Amino acid sequence: MNVQDARFEQQPAADKDLDRLPMDGGSLFLQRTAAVASAAAAEAEDVDREARFPKAAIDAAREQKLLGMLIPVAFGGFGASIPDVTEVCYTLGRACASSAMIFAMHQTKVACLVRHGTGSDYHEALMRRVAAEQMLLASSTTEGQNGGNIRSSAAAVAHSDAEISLVRNATVISYGAEADGIVSIARRADDAAASDQVLLAVTKDNYTLQRIQGWETLGMRGTCSAGFELKINGPAAMIFPESYDKIHAQTMTPVAHLCWSSAWAGIAAAAVERAQRFIRKAARGAGGQMPPGAAHYTAAKMALTKLRAMITANLDLYAAHEYDERALSSLDFQSAINLLKVQASELAVETAMHAMRACGLSGYRNDGEFTVGRHLRDALSAPLMINNDRILANIATASLMSGVPTSLRD
After folding, report:
1. Which SS3 state, helix, strand or coil, does residue 299 take?
2. Topology of the domain covering 140-238
3. What contacts 234, CB < 8 A, 6 or more positions away?
């Protein structure tokens, strides 16, 4: 059974009210998302101030069964689409940046499980568990001093008959201590090249974490992205059947960049909304005369419009090629989806900065109804999360092989 077929199998009895969920973020997903966003917004300031895991928001996501929304209905999920997930990321981003980013990272791992685990008994069983137990999956891709270079691994899988082991210096595992499972990359074997990688999906009974680094940061404080020594022991079946290079090109990169960008757009939208409220209040108080920051509000609104358009265009591009492996691996698509990450992250910061300047001192303050400080601090993580400079350097070489468009639409 392929992924497309699995999505449309008969719905589990537990969710008969969801007869046939629309694939464009239908009303039932919106209702469930609204409940999670409400919980996220209520604790957002405390999550940021205390740098703590947004437990209420993630518990609400579990209650609304959104952690398993991508899982095919044949395995107990809702069979949602990537556009459905990005709508949730955007809505949560408006409420709490850390909750949105945790949700985005989790769904990226689930997307890998759905696309590349179907047909594997171990991974299909894990899909059923994610849907039934609403398990939260974390990601271990950053390692040692590799600076987020996901396509190069130092730690290697050790094989012993049908068992494997792995010890990884994971300098960042977002919400690792709170997760129910971890999806990690590693070299295929001791004698494998750094780029010859595999992906593993591991549950708590097969790994241990020893904290080696804390998480005291400017923004995204609630993601709790501490460093750990990750030790894995368990069946070799934990390794995905497909090599990581395919998973990276077809799912990991495009889904991550679409979900992250949607979360950043949500943060930017929240900042613009505060700027709008400030400008309206200031204009009313001045008898209709616009305050000095009005021009920055207009710039913020324009930047947000551009950001949203960019994301939706790339969502359409991904949807058009979702099951075309050759197209997903092409230079043009890989360049476009990587540039989405770069441009969206920069635009999110630009939007939040314009929003703060629109609000002036009221936006700069950390107290008051018009503060934009948290939003700006959270947005500033975006260009550094898989550093934009690294992405642009990699794209520069590849883009020399791609022609320059000769028309607007081709």
Report:
1. helix
2. Butyryl-CoA Dehydrogenase, subunit A; domain 2 (2.40.110)
3. 163, 164, 202, 205, 206, 207
299 is written with which tokens?
A: 């710039």
What are the structural domain ranges in the chain?
3-135, 140-238, 244-399
Q: Do domains 3-135 and 140-238 have the same CATH topology?
A: no
- CATH classification code of 244-399: 1.20.140.10
Give the pair of three-digit tokens for residue 397.
């070489």
CA-only gyration radius of the chain, Å: 21
| The amino acid at 191 | D
* 180 class by beta-carbon count within 10 Å (0-12 exposed, 13-18 middle, 19+ buried): middle
CB 265 within 8 A of CB 348: yes
Please provide the DSSP assignment of 206-274 as one string.
GEEEEEEE----SS-GGG---EEEEEEEEEGGGB-SS-HHHHIIIIIHHHHHHHHHHHHHHHHHHHHHH
Strand pairing report for 181-187 and 227-235: unpaired
Please state the pTM of the whole predicted model.
0.92
Using the CB atoms, write b or e for 345-365: b if 16+ within 10 Å: bbbbbbbbbbbbbbbbebbee
**pLDDT per residue as tens, the chain (410 positions):** 444 444 333 333 334 444 444 444 456 799 999 999 999 999 999 999 999 999 999 999 999 999 999 999 999 999 999 999 999 999 999 999 999 999 999 999 999 999 999 999 999 999 999 999 999 999 999 887 665 688 889 999 999 999 999 999 999 999 999 999 999 999 999 999 999 999 999 999 999 999 999 999 999 999 999 999 999 999 999 999 999 999 999 999 999 999 999 999 999 999 999 999 999 999 999 999 999 999 999 999 999 999 999 999 999 999 999 999 999 999 989 999 999 999 999 999 999 999 999 999 999 999 999 999 999 999 999 999 889 998 998 888 777 777 788 898 86
- Domain 3-135 in CATH 3.20.20.70? The answer is no
At 215, the amino acid letter reads: W
In whole angstroms, give the CA distance from residue 22 to residue 211.
Answer: 42
Measured CA to CA, the distance from residue 223 to residue 232 in angstroms comes to: 23
Backbone angles phi, psi at 80, to 5 degrees: -70, 165
